[in-house]
Each structure stands twice: as C-alpha cells, then as structure tokens.
Specification:
By secondary structure, the chain is α+β, with helices and mostly antiparallel strands. The protein has 16 helices and 12 strands. Bound molecules: protoporphyrin IX containing FE (HEM).
C-alpha cells in the first residue's frame, strides 16, 4: 500500500522553521497542499497528519485500540500529571474512566449553576473598582482564575479562592516548560538546574502541595459528597480491594485541575475577543439573555432557551479550539483512507485545522454563530473540540454548561471591549493562548 503524499525529506527540512514558529499556519498549509492524509516525510520516523472526518473517526473511534497516547505530547504532559486519566492508556485508563464518570452525569452538571453564578458574581465584585476607574483588566487571567475556582468547588468541594492566581501561575509555568522542551529537543535534562528546570520543579512542587492539601482536607472533613474526589477516595481496586494510593489520587486530581480549567478559560477568552470584534453578534446574544432572564440569575435549565449564546460558544470552539492538537501512536501497521500507516507511526489530528477545512465549512475564517443555531447535518468528526470516541473529553458537558452560564451572567451585568486596537496573536501552546493576555475595558450593561 502506498504511503500518503507529502513533502520530501529535503522539503520538510526547509519547512521546519515554519513548523516551529507558526505550527498552526504550517499545518494549514500542509493539508492545503498535500490533502487530507499527509506523510511528513521525516526519515526513520513516520508522522502522518490526518484531516478528514472519516479518517479521524477511524483513529479515535473505530480502530482506537490500535492507537495509544504514548506520544511526545502526552508523555510530556505525563511528567506533570503522571498516570491520570488524560495521559494513561489501556485497562488502567478504562478503570479510572468508569470510576470518575458518575461525577459528570446530568444531575451534577445541572447543579453547576449554584457554583458558577456565585463565582461570577464574586469576580464582578472584584472588577468593580477597575470598572469605576475605567482601567483595563486582563480578561485571560480573570477567566483562568474563575475557571479554576469553579473546578475546585464542583469537583473537589474546595474553595481555592485566594490561592487561585498562584495555582494558575504554577499550572502555566509547568505547561509552558513542557512546550519549551518540545520546541527545543536539545534542552538540558530535568536534573540540570537551568532556570527553566528550576521554575518547572518549583511549580510542580506547588501543584503537589495543593493537590495533597485537597486530599488531606477532604479526609479531615470525612464528607460523603459524591463529587469526583469523593468517588476517587471511595474507589477500591477490583483485584485487591485496596483504595487508590495518594500518588494515584494526586495524578487524577492534578489532571482534572489542569484539563478542567485552562481549556475552559482559553475558550472563554477567545469568545470575549470574538464578541468584542463582532458587535452585532454581541448585541444579539445580549438581547437573547435579557429577553429570557431580565435580571434573574441564569440556571442550567435556562440554557436550552439560549440557542444563540450556545451557538456563539460553539463557533468560538470551532475557530479557537483550546485543545488544538490530538496525537496518537499506532501500535500495529494500519491503513488510513488507503494509505499505509506503519507500526509506531505518530498520527496527528488538529481540531484547529479540520475546523477550517474549506470543503466542510463555508467561509471557514468567518465568525458565524448561526452555523450552530440551525444545525445542518454534518459528519460527527468534522467538529471535534472535545475529541471523539472512547477518549472523548469527560468534561465536555461540564465545560459547555459552565461556559454558557458564565457568558450569560457576565452579559447581564457588563460589556467587554478590546483595550487595544491590535488583538493579540494566537500562540499554540498546550492550549491556544492570546499572546500577552487579553486586556479589555469593562463597562456596566445599560
Ligand atoms: C472547552 C473546554 C474543554 C476542551 C476544549 C477540552 C478538550 C478535550 C479534548 C480534545 C480531549 C481529548 C484528548 C484526546 O483524545 O487526546 C479531552 C480529554 C479530557 N478532558 Fe477535556 N476539554 C475541556 C474541558 C474539560 C473539563 C471542564 C474537564 C474536567 C472537569 C476536562 C477533563 C478532561 C479529561 C480528564 C480528559 C481525558 C479523558 C480520557 O481520556 O478519558 N476537560 N478534553
């Protein structure tokens, strides 16, 4: 069977600087030139970029058992999250997923309004002095803090309150460091005390302290809350009946802390940016919220009637999917759309790239929430902000509900506009981030 088309080794060498400096642009150009399945042509290391819905479905769902997470991307993340749900595989992963799934069931998601609305109100209180002075706020940092507080309350029953800014800083320091290493393959080993390694070690120690404190506090409280922490603490190993070790608990908690806040915060930040740049969409969303709720706080039950607002968020996830790359490694040789994929090949799927596929999306660069209001039939795997198949994001519904409640509550109370004429550039780190944050001017809604 033939290999997929793609650049020659000489061509890929010439493209490497772009691949490093502008990975998203590189991936878009690559698929535009060579098609939906591209072999990067790297000697001795097969890397295949897959950008067709049916092919993505094959890797993530139909033949998922042949594709592991033992990739550079997930191995790097595992230096932070160990064997947590996001970075583990096989039977270990399957058990952990079954253990945690009940904490993400409907009734718990529907109770999120009781956590999210007070957290937003507290944030707006914090904003009041800046609003009064007309000073800009970094909405990116604010969304990070808010999303971390929500995760703390909803999953671990803990008020991260004052610790939130330091914790988000520690998360960002560890994530930035693994991205830095991925981009600089000749970085010094972790044990060498370079500035980056020392920052990483300090941040990881802070995250360890925070997660072990969460475990200790719950044990002290002896609560029988069935949130994810309660489920993990009550779980027994089906083979030997033993509870999870503290190290296992730490890996799962840290995974949820990281996967559950940076992604949501990134998505909300891009949504505020898009709304500020599309005043007609912003006004329509505000009208929808005002007509339905007046001044009353939103509940999860209201969200089904906020179709345009949900369309805005879905469209923002299309244009700026926080998890912009998903990788897998083939265990055995496979065929994707008639192209050979050798055993050991790295398979790269980019939600960012498939969400801009010109054959799947009309005018793909345009922000157009209506695409998700009257939903036309589309291939399930053409829109994958949360991945797909058995490894689909466990926090999918959690994130959609949380984000919609935040958008509605903030919109009832204020308007956000860009503080500078030049919007920030997109940085493809572990998630898509606005370079230098997102300073915005906040005014009270009329
Ligand atoms: C807009 C917000 C979010 C986005 C875009 C997002 C995206 C994703 C994606 C694409 C995956 C699959 C990765 C893969 O297949 O390689 C994933 C997995 C995961 N996400 Fe999310 N996520 C979001 C919010 C959340 C939240 C709120 C939580 C927890 C509360 C969470 C926890 C996880 C976990 C634990 C996994 C691993 C699941 C498994 O492998 O069984 N995520 N997420």
């Amino acid at each position: 069977m033939p290999k997929a088309p793609g650049p020659t080794p000489r061509e890929i060498l010439a493209l490497l600087p772009q691949a490093q400096a502008d990975t998203l642009g590189f991936l878009l150009a690559l698929t535009a030139r060579w098609g939906d399945v591209v072999d990067l042509g790297i000697p001795l290391r097969s890397v295949v970029v897959v950008n067709a819905p049916a092919a993505i479905q094959h890797v993530l769902r139909d033949n998922h058992k042949n594709y592991t997470k033992r990739t550079l991307q997930y191995d790097a993340l595992a230096t932070i999250t160990g064997r947590g749900l996001l970075t583990s595989d096989g039977e270990h992963w399957h058990r952990r997923r079954r253990m945690q799934q009940p904490a993400f069931a409907r009734p718990r998601i529907e109770a999120l309004d009781r956590i999210v609305v007070p957290a937003v109100d507290a944030m707006l209180e914090r904003w009041a002095p800046s609003i009064e002075r007309g000073a800009a706020l970094d909405v990116d940092a604010e969304m990070m803090r808010l999303a971390l507080e929500v995760v703390g309350h909803a999953l671990f029953g803990i008020d991260l309150g004052r610790d939130a800014p330091a914790l988000t800083r520690a998360v960002m320091d560890t994530l930035d460091s693994i991205v830095h290493r991925a981009r600089h393959p000749f970085s010094a080993p972790r044990w060498v005390p370079t500035a980056d390694n020392r920052r990483f070690a300090r941040a990881l120690a802070a995250l360890d302290d925070a997660t072990y404190a969460i475990i200790a506090e719950r044990r002290r409280a002896a609560s029988d809350e069935r949130d994810v922490l309660g489920l993990l603490l009550a779980a027994k190993d089906p083979d030997d009946g033993r509870p999870l070790s503290d190290r296992d608990l730490r890996d799962e908690i840290l995974t949820l802390l990281i996967a559950g806040h940076e992604t949501v915060a990134s998505a909300l930040t891009w949504t505020w940016l898009l709304l500020a740049r599309h005043p007609e969409a912003y006004a329509r969303m505000a009208d929808e919220v005002g007509d339905l709720l007046g001044g009353r706080a939103p509940t999860a039950a209201d969200l089904s009637a906020l179709g345009y607002l949900r369309g805005v968020f879905a469209e923002s996830l299309r244009l700026y999917p926080p998890a912009w790359v998903i990788s897998r490694r083939a265990l055995e040789a496979d065929a994707i759309e008639g192209h050979a994929v050798p055993a050991g090949a790295l398979v790269v799927i980019s939600p960012y790239v498939i969400h801009r596929h010109p054959a799947l999306w009309s005018d793909p660069e345009r922000f157009h929430p209506e695409r998700f209001v009257a939903e036309p039939a589309r291939h399930r795997f053409s829109y994958i902000p949360f991945g797909g198949g058995p490894r689909i994001c466990i926090g999918n519904e959690f994130a959609l509900t949380e984000a919609a409640l935040i958008l509605a509550r903030v919109t009832q109370r204020c308007r956000l506009s860009l503080a500078s004429a030049e919007p920030p550039a997109v940085e493809a780190l572990v998630t898509l981030r606005p370079q230098g944050g997102l300073p915005m001017q906040i005014t009270l809604a009329k």
